[in-house]
Design brief:
It contains 13 helices and 2 strands, in the order βαααβαααααααααα. With about 375 residues, it is mainly α. The chain has a two-stranded parallel sheet with strand order 1-2. α2 packs antiparallel against α3.
Length: about 375
């Protein structure tokens, strides 16, 4: 069982986010160059270290003061985003090309790099597409594009944030729905609905259209695969697609876990109730929060999408659903549908009952 974390008054310092998120990159880079223990270090950092530290040091970081500024926050995002753009082709060459690594070392690199791209590269790209400076937004979009998941840059902002915790959002899982049923529906739905949302946005802004974002996503994906072929032929294409799918699966399982079974109430006017803290699952564990750039503080992100990640606040467990496991552990549990449903049923029940009560009140 997970220990009950104690409250820590101070928020996580920026150094914690920078070190936790970026430390695996030199380990994996040294592994590409020298193999051996460096690859084990990079893989175990991502697969085991966050879980161990969350258990061994069980506390919750405090909230930053309202209005606090974090001038280094965007620099960390840029460093992670650029690292993702460099690590992916390097890993493809090392996994499928003439790197001299053994088969076992290539497997370690594949999973170590894939875990970092999904658990760190994605949260950074997610933050970047919510930043207003165009250069930052484009960097986040580029990360999703090379991961062959460019539609996420559109669907997340234009569909998910608007329709979260409702049947209109393909990335919100229903109670009892398995991840394996959710995953293809979410991938396909986000692609289609993101495209439609971009078309509608362009129709409202005639004269300022520019290149259609999906042209960028599809064209950028094709260029990425061309680079993979140049690096290592057909094996390079397979490695690139495999790493991209590995990262995409982690992105989708995170969406699955963070909104599983939560539903917004329909108001008498037919509209959905405003998005509130009760519509996202949160986790409180400190190291996985540092590693994933506070992505586990998901309720506050939906309430304040442009709030810098170090300033995201953790609602009280009476105000917002909270999982007892670190987010990576919860996502792993979601791959076992029977165990997941059994573990989540009692935790979801009070929030489902509260939603039903709100619906009765609105009727």
């Amino acid at each position: 069982m997970t220990k009950s974390p104690s409250l820590r008054k101070a928020p996580l310092p920026m150094a914690a986010f920078a070190v936790a998120s970026l430390a695996p990159v030199p380990l994996l880079a040294l592994g590409i160059w020298a193999g051996g223990g460096w690859l084990w270090a990079g893989f175990l950092y991502m697969a085991l270290l966050s879980v161990l530290l969350d258990q061994l040091v069980p506390y919750v970081a405090g909230d930053a003061p309202e209005g606090a500024e974090f001038p280094a926050a965007d620099a960390v995002l840029v460093a992670v985003g650029l690292s993702a753009l460099a690590l992916l082709p390097a890993a493809v060459w090392a996994v499928a090309g003439p790197s001299g690594l053994s088969v076992g070392q290539r497997v370690l690199l594949f999973f170590g790099a894939g875990l970092w791209l999904g658990q760190v590269g994605h949260p950074a790209a997610h933050e970047l597409i919510h930043r207003s400076p165009r250069a930052l937004f484009n960097l986040g979009r580029a990360v999703y594009t090379v991961l062959l998941f460019g539609q996420h840059a559109s669907a997340h902002r234009l569909v998910h944030h608007r329709h979260v915790a409702s049947g209109e959002d393909p990335n919100s899982a229903r109670a009892g729905e398995s991840f394996y049923r959710f995953m293809p529906k979410a991938w396909r739905g986000s692609f289609i609905q993101g495209w439609k949302a971009e078309d509608a946005l362009r129709a409202r802004s005639a004269g300022r259209q520019g290149l259609h974002p999906y042209t960028v996503y599809i064209g950028g994906g094709a260029l990425s695969l061309a680079l993979a072929a140049a690096l290592a032929g057909w094996g390079g294409i397979l490695a690139w697609v495999g790493l991209a799918l590995h990262a995409q699966m982690q992105i989708l399982v995170s969406d699955y876990v963070q909104h599983y079974g939560l539903q917004r109430v329909t108001l008498p006017n037919g509209r959905l109730e405003p998005v509130g803290p009760q519509h996202s699952w949160n986790t409180a564990h400190w190291f996985s929060s540092a590693l994933m750039l506070n992505a586990p503080r998901h309720s506050d992100h939906h309430a304040h999408p442009t709030r810098p990640y170090p300033a995201l606040r953790l609602p009280a467990p009476t105000d917002a659903p909270r999982l007892p496991w670190p987010l990576p552990v919860a996502c792993t549990l979601a791959f076992f549908p029977r165990l997941w449903r059994r573990a989540m049923r009692p935790r979801l029940r009070p929030w489902a009952e509260a939603a039903a009560a709100r619906q009765v009140t609105q009727a």
